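Quick question, first post here. What does this chain look like in 3D?
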Amino acid sequence: MSTTAVTRQAAPLREQVAAAMRAEIVDGTLAPGERLYEKSLCERYDVSRTVIREVLRQLESESLVTVRPGHGPMVTVLTPAGIEALYEVRQELEGLAAELFARRADDGQAQAMRELVRGMEQSYLHGDLESRSESKSEFYRLLLEGAGNPVLTSTLEGIHARIGIFRYFAFIDPERVSISYTEIVAIAEAAARDRDPKTARLNSEHHVSLAGKLAILEYTKRFSDDAPAGAANALRRIG
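> Answer (accepted):
Ran it through. Tokens below.
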């Protein structure tokens, strides 16, 4: 196992290692089904077993790591059915968030959303991986703040933690970025400009529905032993 340097910064070491391991799971360096041995991980990130155990527990909570009794931790292996189930829940939650924003957000929150989305033409549509991730995260922060439901916020944040690998796929695909930007604008216009709860919800659900199809396609294409057939079957399942 190769070594991945972790630079000591102000953030807790556990968070730095978790970010590094998360990134290597997302980009496939640590492949689905790969066993994660504590000793090797300690050497890889040059940290103690205590830190590695904390990181593995954190990534297990994000469903990026699976711990099997008698076998230890491994990189989670997903299935099209499991991804579809995750996105079904995400679709309902984000649709509700957009609807509630249209109903509840005050004028300042609506203005902040409109300004953010205008800026996303540069930071998201014409941005890089980092700026796309940051601006999309800010979009959801504002959306959930305006929705005004803390239970919805905590639940959806948990879902977002589990779909990091799929957001990575979306942020590196120029065609999907362009489509996604158009969808984000449509959500913001309905929720923050027109204050139309029904349309805001429909636009948000449409956005997540397409994201779910991409998630299944990309995951199957990258990690399946039978990629072409698997990807086609995945799209047929939810198309």
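The chain has eleven helices and two strands.
The chain has a mean pLDDT of 87.
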